Every structure is written in structure tokens, then in C-alpha cells.
């Protein structure tokens, strides 16, 4: 099971992040409009990602904390033309849908996302990834911390929740305001 050490942060200056990544020879993989459908999972989180670059069923366990955190991830490549989404919706029910535009970059084993999330705003993510057990967790932590500093991410901008959690909180807040 791949292990990832990651952070997510609000990003006021995506142009600056992009500039720093390119100055450090990051490989730009492309811009992907992704629809992440989260399902009611008994353990961990389960989402189906639909995009032009990435199409996966993703199951993961992760603590919700603002500092860098470890995720244990299982990925299953999916066929965008399959009926998997319909089957999951009928059997498990949809918890939340996240619609985002994502720029994807890599430097070695570290993946960077510059995200514009509908209903939430602008973010940056750093994922130091060990796909085969060859990188110590401490090394992944070091990589993540290095890029937090390099990308000039302020600790106050770090967030602990997933986009789905933030959208659900916004929805609940808006419902409370509507009920008043």
C-alpha cells in the first residue's frame, strides 16, 4: 500500500507557487478538471476520481491535522466509460462531490497540486509519495517540510480537512443561515 506524507493549504498566490515549481525544474503533467465523488465508507474514505489525466477509485486512511500527515492509499485505475460510479452510488450512497481544476507537477517522488475548487477557492497540495516501500517515512516528512518552506506556505494557511469535509461544512453553514 503506497504511503504519502502530505499537506493542503489555502493559496493566495498560485502564480508564485507555479513560478517556484518551474524554477526548480518541476515536471508539469497538465491541467485536469477532476470530479471526485465521495461515497459513504465504513472505514477510511472512498472516492471515485474522474478526469482526463487521472481516473481512479481511491481508498485512503488519513488523520485530519494541519501539519503534514501520513496517508495510506489504495488506488485502482478505472475506465471512465465503466458503470462503476453508478454501482457505487446505488450500493453505498454519495456523501459529497468535489469539482476542481487541478494543475499537476512532479519533482522526483513529490507531487504538487495547484487547485481551484468550486465553492471553496484556491489551494496548493504537496504529496511526498512512497509507492513501493523504498523511502523511509522520515524522509517523506523531510521532503514535505522542505517544500512547505520552498513554496512559502504559511502555517496559518494549512488546513486539516479534505475538500469534501470543507464543502459539507459550507453546505451545513448555508443551511443553518437559510433556516434562520
From TrEMBL:
This is CYTH domain-containing protein. The lineage of its organism: Bacteria, Pseudomonadati, Bacteroidota, Bacteroidia, Marinilabiliales. SUPFAM superfamilies: CYTH-like phosphatases (SSF55154). It comes from Marinifilum caeruleilacunae. It comes from the Bacteria. Residues 2-169 form the CYTH domain. InterPro entries: Adenylyl_cyclase_CyaB (IPR008173), CYTH-like_dom_sf (IPR033469), CYTH_domain (IPR023577). Pfam families: CYTH (PF01928).
Amino acid at each position: 500500500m503506497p504511503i504519502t506524507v502530505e499537506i493542503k493549504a489555502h493559496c493566495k498566490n498560485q502564480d508564485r507557487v507555479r513560478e517556484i515549481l518551474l524554477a526548480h525544474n518541476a515536471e508539469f503533467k497538465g491541467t485536469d478538471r477532476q470530479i471526485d465523488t465521495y461515497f459513504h465508507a465504513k472505514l477510511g474514505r472512498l472516492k471515485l476520481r474522474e478526469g482526463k489525466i487521472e481516473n481512479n477509485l481511491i481508498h485512503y486512511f488519513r488523520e485530519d491535522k494541519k501539519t503534514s500527515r501520513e496517508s495510506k492509499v489504495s488506488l485502482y485505475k478505472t475506465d471512465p466509460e465503466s458503470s462503476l460510479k453508478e454501482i457505487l452510488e446505488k450500493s453505498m450512497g454519495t456523501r459529497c462531490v468535489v469539482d476542481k481544476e487541478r494543475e499537476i507537477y512532479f519533482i522526483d517522488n513529490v507531487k504538487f497540486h495547484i487547485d481551484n475548487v468550486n465553492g471553496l477557492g484556491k489551494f496548493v497540495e504537496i504529496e511526498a509519495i512512497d509507492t513501493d516501500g523504498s523511502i523511509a517515512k522520515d524522509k517523506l516528512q523531510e521532503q514535505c517540510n522542505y517544500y512547505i518552506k520552498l513554496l512559502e506556505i504559511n502555517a496559518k494557511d494549512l488546513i486539516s480537512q479534505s475538500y469534501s469535509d470543507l464543502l459539507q461544512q459550507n453546505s451545513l453553514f448555508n443551511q443553518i443561515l437559510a433556516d434562520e
